[in-house]
Amino acid sequence: MIRLALSLLILILSTGCSTIGGWFGGSDNSIPPAALKTIDQPVGVQQLWETQIGSGAEKQFIRLTPALVDGRVYAASHDGTVTALDALSGQRLWETSTNLPISGGVGVSGNGLVLAGTSKGEVIALRQENGQEAWHAQVSSEVLAPPRAASGIVVIRTVDGKFTGLDADSGEQRWVFTYAMPALSLRGNAPPVVTRDLVIAGLDSGKLLVLALTKGLPLTEKTVAIPRGRTEIERLIDIDSEPKVFADTLYLAAYRGNIAAIDMHSGNLLWNRDISSYAGLDVDARQVYTSDDTDAVLALDRATGSTFWKQTELTGRRLSAPVVTTDHVVVGDFEGYLHWMRKEDGRIVGRLRAASKAIVTPPVAIGDIVFIQGQGGTLGAFRAGS
Predict the structure, then answer these.
(1) CA 169, 170, 175 angle in degrees (round to 5)?
(2) What are the start-end ranges of the E strands in 284-342?
(3) Do 366 and 349 contact (CB within 8 A), yes or no?
(4) What CA–CA distance (Å, rounded) separates 289 from 348?
(5) C-alpha angle with apex 238: 235 to 242, nearest 5 degrees?
(6) CATH number of 117's domain
(7) Which structural domain, as residue segments, surrounds residue 272?
(8) Four-CA torsion 201, 122, 115, 283, nearest 10 degrees
(9) pTM of full prediction above 0.85
(10) Residue 133 has pLDDT above 50, yes or no
């Protein structure tokens, strides 16, 4: 456990909850990055457009994710730049310099806002049509997860173990919920899923939390990944990627834990696989796709969790979570490459270097178009096939 060794010092010196910096989305240092192989009969991959968003976030150990809505892409940089672009052409529609250290974003709301949080616990809401500030709020601590919003409530998750509900029109605080944090966790917070007037989030302790959206009251807390080992290092377990909802099922992945499917009506566990993932997962009508902690990409049966295929040619390349397109599954890696795999068998059929720095945030897709934001600030749109 070479990557975890320095954390022992953090644990000894700390009297409270500690977080481990760095990226655990890839393999342990003992696994060298796989060399890229020549692709037999590749599909054509093309860049539709590419631009630069501020100075990026390469040395901040944060994951800034673009948001796609109504034919627009919204993105932010750690230096405070927030930008709106046309999704198909890449034309810049507006750009706002907030002069804030953005560390969590971006999110969008149903009342026409672009939302971001900062390392100083600030939340800023800009208007989608022109980038003008709508409101500015203060929460308790650093924001690493993109804000989520529904039914007039903006949900903010902070690193001190709190969820805060803000009024989407004014930014005023509506509620706060605090959960118990473990002694040690990875740096990062999974953004919550806001659906059916529920706030659903994976916690640093391997538990699943469900809150009522309007009041912030806890409805249930379920253990989905159990810590193992004798020391705090060995028992480190963390749900650090966003859960996914498909039909009536919730899917989530835990680092050094499991991938699980939970029925949304009953709360019952449908299936559970002993697969560790920091990067996260995506889902379509048939399969669940994930990048595990060795950087193998797996396709699991959505109904049973059984393995359809496992792609191991990218081990050690510190992959992002997969994103599903019309015909492919796409992941980014530590050198800025995007890799296209066939849904049917996981065979790699396309590759393109989309950014000069790592792609650690999950790509976003609509149809067969993939949007990425690299750690160096590159934002681009790419497509496989004609």
Answers:
(1) 100
(2) 287-291, 297-301, 307-311, 323-324, 328-332, 337-342
(3) no
(4) 14
(5) 165
(6) 2.130.10.10
(7) 40-384
(8) -20
(9) yes
(10) yes
